[in-house]
Structures are given as structure tokens and as C-alpha cells.
Amino acid sequence: MKLKPISMLTFTFMLALCSWNNPQNPDIDKASWLAGTWQNKSEKMFETWKKVSDTEFAGKSYMLRKNDTLVFETIRLIQKLEGLAYIPKVRNQNKNQPVEFLQKKVTETELVFENPKHDFPQVIAYKLINPDSLVAEISASKNGKVRKQTFAMKRLK
Fold it and tell me: Nearest-CA neighbor of 128 among 55, 42, 36?
């Protein structure tokens, strides 16, 4: 069967459009180990992640006090064409608006996001130590000094 030139052009355009909208190996797949509930080893702080679609994870950081759950941060991890975006919304910060951190490094064991224009943090990183252990770190540089906070976390069964 011989295709007409206009049909071949349309077919090529549609094929390119489909591949452009559906990355073959999206970086969000590399973040699948983040799903679940994690507890900070030294505090009663928790972080929970769940996959809500092929292109998004939803997370929240919270503390438990007696019978109350105090959520202090909600997070969206979104696959964009240019990579992953980590978008936290922290209670009583940034006028309660989300702040976007863009992918700096994404591997099967490490996720690093950066927003150099933000005051603190400027970098948010997660490193998988083993299937049940990770280290989360937030950091920023100001006047040549680095300030960082590290959170060792274990997966809850």
C-alpha cells in the first residue's frame, strides 16, 4: 500500500507528538521507592508518599500528637517534560503558596531538587540507603555558609 505524501506527513507528525507526550523512561519511575510511609528515627515525624498517576506522586509530612495528625507540608512530585518537579506547600510559609524545586539529579537511589532563588531550603535531597532506610536532607547556601538539616528515616511496615 502506498501512502499519499500528505498522509505520510500527518502520520509522522502524530507519531512524533505521541512520543513527545509520553517519555520512554520517565524519571518519576525512578522515584517509585519513595512510596510508603517513612518515620524520622529521632522524632515523631512522618512522611507518606503515594502514586496518584503515571506522572505524579503525592506526599505529606506530619507529626502525631496524641490523637491528632498535624500536617505541616503537602508535596507534589510531578513528571514534566524537562524532568521532575518537587512542589511542597508548607503551612505558614511562603504565604501558603507552593514552591517549585526542579530536578538536579535523579537515579534509582537518589533524588535531588533545587531552587537557588528560595531562601531555605534551596536543595532537597532523598537518598535510599536500603529498601527500608533513607536519608532526607534540606540545605541552602547564604554568604558562603551552608546550612543543612538531615533526617534519617525508616520505612514503616
Answer: 36
Contact 88, 98 (CB under 8 A): yes
Query: Per-residue pLDDT tens for 2-60?
Result: 555 555 444 444 444 444 444 455 899 999 999 999 999 777 899 999 999 999 999 99
For 27-155, CATH number out of 2.40.128.20, 3.40.50.300, 3.30.70.1150, 3.40.50.1820 equals 2.40.128.20
Confirm whether pTM is higher than 0.85.
no
The pLDDT value recorded for residue 2 is: 57
Nearest to 34 by CA among 49, 21, 18: 49
Sorted by where each begins, the domain ranges of the chain are 27-155
